[in-house]
Design goal:
This protein is mainly α. Helix content is 68%, strand content 0%. The chain is built from twelve helices and no strands. The chain is globular.
Length: 322
């Protein structure tokens, strides 16, 4: 029996997903350097350019600093929740990468409830912020956590509703079925309003500018992770970039047909180009838009995005039923 188990779960079957997830973590780490260089370019300044040729070893320097910095746990904190918060933040959206079909031959797991799995894991990420803000026993952390929880829970509603039009058209929650349903027409055209709402809600889910009020340095001095340092802060930091990669990949699959044929390019290259386009847009928005007031963010969600989402669902239902 043990022999059969080993035959079924061979070394390659175990190592392939692990290597892939480590590749995603490495890419997320590198993305922090790419973002700093691009932001410097957009804002007419130099950026990190001292370590190695044109700053190419900056990631290595940051990693060494992060690993050797004191891993301090405040004596006034609730230690258990203080420690598990960055772990939840790091792995919640990393697991979403497992359900994304990067090509027809490379997919870690094909879930019939792929969309629901993504929504579930994005909901779990709220707990990491709540636990970190509360367990730090710091008023700025708590204020940041309250902001993040209200923002994330609100925008998750729009995130889920914006995908229901796509699901109704494909008649499936399976991501591969949704990609295959776009052979003749990409979802970005019939589901344009859904795409806009999903994109904006993804910015809020990742706490990216202009939805970074939970971490606003000028107001909250870094918000919910102000008491974190060393490897724990690194898990929050890299987790944010992993979430950008995950939602950008999902947008490629759900609205741009994933790796389906585009200009005769190989499928993996086609998928990568679409994903990089969304990642670049995330960075461009951070470089160009100001941060709005927190109440304006909530107003924008409930008074503008919610009616647009419901209108999109009504239009989709009208065309499907007729």
């Amino acid at each position: 029996m043990i022999k059969n188990i080993f035959n079924e779960f061979s070394f390659i079957h175990v190592m392939k997903p692990l290597l892939f997830l480590f590749s995603i973590i490495f890419f997320a780490s590198s993305l922090s350097f790419v973002e700093r260089r691009l932001l410097a370019l957009f804002q007419n300044r130099y950026g990190p350019n001292r370590v190695g040729w044109n700053g190419c070893l900056q990631i290595l320097a940051d990693t060494i600093k992060m690993f050797f910095k004191e891993d301090w746990i405040p004596p006034f904190s609730h230690k258990f929740f203080f420690v598990i918060s960055p772990i939840i933040s790091f792995i919640s959206l990393l697991l979403v990468v497992a359900i994304i079909p990067f090509s027809t031959s490379f997919l870690i797991i094909n879930l019939d409830i792929g969309i629901l799995f993504f929504l579930m894991m994005s909901s779990l990420s709220v707990y990491s912020i709540l636990f970190s803000g509360w367990s730090s026993n710091n008023k700025y952390s708590l204020l940041g956590a309250m902001r993040a929880a209200a923002q994330t829970i609100s925008y998750e509603i729009f995130l889920g509703l914006s995908l229901m039009g796509v699901v109704a058209q494909a008649k499936s929650f399976n991501i591969i079925d949704i990609i295959n349903s776009q052979k003749n027409l990409w979802n970005i055209l019939p589901q344009f309003f859904g795409f806009i709402v999903f994109f904006i809600s993804s910015l809020a889910l990742c706490h990216r500018h202009p939805f970074d009020q939970p971490e606003a340095e000028q107001e909250l001095a870094d918000g919910y992770h102000i008491e974190y340092s060393g490897i724990k802060f690194g898990m929050f930091f890299i987790g944010e970039y992993i979430s950008i990669i995950a939602v950008s990949s999902l947008m490629s699959c759900l609205f741009l047909a994933g790796g389906n044929n585009f200009l005769g390019l190989p499928k993996f290259l086609c998928f990568s180009l679409k994903t990089l386009f969304f990642i670049f847009t995330f960075i461009l928005i951070r470089a160009s838009l100001p941060r709005p007031r927190y109440d304006k963010v909530m107003y924008f969600g409930w008074k503008i995005l919610l009616p647009i989402t419901l209108f999109n669902l009504l239009i989709t239902a009208f065309f499907i039923l007729n």
